[in-house]
């Protein structure tokens, strides 16, 4: 299955990640979203330190 996150804004993607972790959703989905966030350079070296968060 292929997903296109191209049109998803950065803040929305971060919110999806946060809510997924809070609600203990599927681990593969959380990792998939985090990989997209990481690919956009929205995180530092560690997943817990998300940048661009107000």
Automatic annotation (TrEMBL):
It comes from the Bacteria. Gene3D superfamilies: Sporulation inhibitor A. InterPro entries: Sda, Sda_sf. This is Sporulation histidine kinase inhibitor Sda.
